Amino acid sequence: MALPKVNAVIIGAGAAGPIMAKELATAGWRVVLLERGRWATPADCHKDDLFNQRNSTLGHPFGPDDDGNPRVVVDAKGNERIVEPSGGGYNNNAACVGGGTLSYGAMAWRFHPNDFRMKSVYGAKIPRAVEGSTLVDWPISYDDLEPYYTKAEWEVGVSGDVSTDPFHGPRSKPLPMPPLPATREHEILEKGAKAMGLHPFHIPMLRNSVPYRGRPACMRCRWCVGFACEVDAKCGSQNTVLPVALATGNLELRTQCMTKEVLVDEKGKAGGVTYFDREGRLWEQPADYVIVSASAVESARLLLNSKSKLFPEGLGNRHDWVGRNLQGHTYTGAAGLFDFETYDDVGPGAGIAICDYNHGNEDLAGGAMLANEFIRLPYQFVTGTRQPGVARWGRPHKEWVRQFYRRSITVQGPTQEMPVFDSRVTVSTTVRDKFGIPVARFSGYKHPHTIEIGNAMAAKAEKWLRASGANETWLKKAGQGVSGGQHQAGTCRMGADPKTSVVDQWCRVHDMDNVYVVDGSVHVTNGGFNPVLTIMAIAYRSAEKLAKEGKRS
């Protein structure tokens, strides 16, 4: 069934989609925003450690559910296995209004200026970083994004203090909110970092440290990453830009609506999308513009499933680049035990970082931001922070937990990954979801230099812990296999050449006048930082251009 035509239909209400909706709706566009999940609330995610932490980091309680939403993972030997959303390797992003921004840890990093020109900075200097990779420079620079980083920080809301970080790019305005007060871990790590000659500072956070734009300050509870904020102090798209967009009267949000395909006519112009509603009925939504903001995995899946005479291999996939260059973040670091208490039960836990190792590491192409970790709930502690050789059950296990739960600190960071052509998302030829749509299929591997960088960052984290007073430490090293976790990116990369990229610098699909992809999938490289603020900045930049120059019927 066909619905009345609108100016734009946006697929996905995560970090980017609501920003696109807000910018277009406030400019007078008639917009429909389709989200496959529900509009969840904190009441939908009870503070139950066992229930929530058996699921993915970004909150599988916020979807998708295990009923009819599988994916396929291919191992190094070419064997396929079907994975449900609550299973390891699913690479989940929460499927709900706000997406991962409802339940994320909320670190709000700008990429470093060098992150946009990795090939130029390291290509000739470190050849092994380029060999076997698809490393290239972005078609835009830090300076191009700087005004939009600022806009995101002030409109969505960021707290913190980066004034003692000498490595960040130029800023036109300071952060709008001060940092949260330092925790005991922060104070311990700050002394150690300064003793090493490093430059510690307060992490920028999409979290209210003071009342901001009608919402209260963080209450410092321990249930943060993987949970929704019960006082609404965590700043996501669902409680900032989306209400503004809805208030215009120009936006209609439709939840529990799964997009099937983008419709393309014989002239190569998109006419809209088809989608299934919550009752399983198939609808056609005509639109002047189609904006895909469904995450790097689901956006690539949608384009690959949108086949036509002009695009028999999928929309925008004329040169076989859709789904390629999948990057998540290879998290590495170290844990340490202390002979005094480090834990004060003050959330969110993560609060201090250093950027001394993002760039300038001898013989390494990039590096990572290193920070202390969010509060490790008891279930996480016994499964993820365990010291090698410690019993996994029984009295020795219990005694170790009692002794060290309050005397441990973990430091880690997201490795700057080298993109690989064969690390990718395709669509399965045999497995379909509950609507009959071919599901996402993961295959590939990490570039050897990614593993090298990650392990070097783990060693740096260990030294920081030792300098801070840890008397026992152990490393969390890089693993093999495809990288596509909650920081997934790269599958619809941005570029000037249609033969080696999927979208242009404004996120418009090459060869298509009216289809855009706006989310982490357009990232050429994914930096050594959490990418959400960059996703938001790109959305603001693309929306501004489209609102001014788009041709509406």
Describe what this molecule looks like in 3D.
The strands form three sheets. Strands 1, 2, 7, 8, 9, 10 and 18 form a seven-stranded mixed sheet that branches. The chain has a seven-stranded antiparallel sheet with strand order 5-6-12-13-14-11-17. It has a four-stranded mixed sheet with strand order 4-3-16-15. It is globular, with a radius of gyration of 22 Å. Helix 6 packs across helix 11. The chain has twelve helices and 18 strands. About 1% of the residues have low confidence. The protein has one domain: FAD/NAD(P)-binding domain, CATH 3.50.50. It starts with 5 loop residues before the first strand and ends with a helix. The protein has 553 residues and is an alpha/beta fold. The longest helix has 20 residues.
Describe, in short, the structure shown.
Helix content is 23%, strand content 18%. With 553 residues, the protein is an alpha/beta fold.
Runs in which pLDDT lies below 50 for 5 or more consecutive residues are 54-59
| Overall body shape | globular
Give the C-alpha Rg. Answer: 22 Å
**What number is the mean pLDDT?**
95
In N-to-C order, the SSE pattern is EHEHEEHHHEHEHEEEEHEEEHHEEEHEEH
CATH homologous superfamily (4th level) name = FAD/NAD(P)-binding domain
**Beta-strand share of residues:** 15-25%
CATH architecture: 3-Layer(bba) Sandwich
Q: What is the number of E strands?
A: 18
Largest sheet: 7 strands, mixed
Percentage of residues assigned to helices:
10-25%
How many H/I helices? 12
Instruction: Find the structural class using helix and strand composition.
Output: alpha/beta
Q: What is the distance, rounded to the nearest whole angstrom, between the alpha carbons of the first and last residues?
A: 21 Å
What CATH first level would be assigned?
A: Alpha Beta
